[in-house]
Amino acid sequence: MAKPTPITNTIRTLRFHTGEMTQADLAEKVGVTRQTVIAIEQGRYSPSLEVAFRIARVFGVGLEDVFQFPEDESGSAGGGAGKG
Amino acid sequence: MTFREKIAVLTLIANVLIYGAYFGDTTLGVLDGVYALDQGYLIQTIVMLIVVVIAGSIVLGIFAGREADAPADERDRLVAMRADQRAGYVVAFGAGASLVMAIAGLSVFWIANTVLAGLVAGEMLKSLSTLIDYRRGV
């Protein structure tokens, strides 16, 4: 099944290192459904910036410690962003 | 499968079976040269669909427990919005086609059934879109 987003994340690992937090616990803390947490973990859904920050805050880490955007994707999608 | 996906499956199956029977009968009538709109049968079909979907949703809700009461989150709203958008194109096409038929002077039979076909196709696409987005991702 193709992933609709190139964004990867470390939520599963972070949950494991945070007292083996369940998906349901994370969902409740963030304010989304458990299915949405599952979809985010599997890369089937890119959350809004607000939810992304909430997830990072639950784990007490920065946004880029949770979500990663591949270099080649950023190069092609935003190649002109730093110019001018 | 989540509660919202089950509702989409229920709606899709109900639409296919109930409106499939209606349009099947209507097509057979046309083949026999009957072009009269059977208002009683049409209303009966619409009421039957509403009753089946409501009753089915209640049963699914009972088995879903707390999940059925959970408010929609941002992903649910996005999936619903994409489904509504896609269905809107089909409904608009059906409305446009029926308008052309009205201008061309076709009978109420064709216009009413074209409007209904657009609505039904839109609803089916909405259910399909919901299922695909939940499965494949958005």
> Using DSSP, what is the number of strands of chain A?
2
Q: Overall pLDDT of chain A, averaged?
A: 84
- Please, what is the average pLDDT of chain B? 94
What is the CA-atom radius of gyration of chain A, in angstroms?
14 Å
Spell out the key features of this protein:
heterodimer, A: 84 residues, mainly alpha, two-stranded antiparallel sheet, 54% helix, 5% strand, globular, disordered C terminus, B: 138 residues, 5 helices
Outline the secondary-structure elements.
The complex is a heterodimer of chains A (84) and B (138).
Chain A: E1 8-9, H1 11-17, H2 23-30, H3 34-41, H4 49-59, H5 63-66, E2 67-68, H6 71-77
Antiparallel strand pairs in A: 1-2
Chain B: H1 3-31, H2 39-64, H3 66-69, H4 74-103, H5 108-136
Helix pairs in contact in B: 1-2, 1-5, 4-5
Describe this structure in words.
The complex is a heterodimer of chains A (about 80) and B (about 140). Chain A has about 80 residues and is mostly helical. Chain A has helices at about 10-15, 25-30, 35-40, 50-60, 65, 70-75; strands at about 10, 65-70. Chain A has a two-stranded antiparallel sheet with strand order 1-2. Chain B is mainly alpha-helical and about 140 residues long. Chain B contains 5 helices and no strands. Chain B has helices at about 5-30, 40-65, 65-70, 75-105, 110-135. In chain B, helix 1 runs antiparallel to helix 2 (about 40-65) and helix 1 packs antiparallel against helix 5 (about 110-135). Chain B is globular, with a radius of gyration of 17 Å. Chain B starts with a helix and ends with a helix. At the A-B interface, helix 3 of A face helix 4 and helix 5 of B.
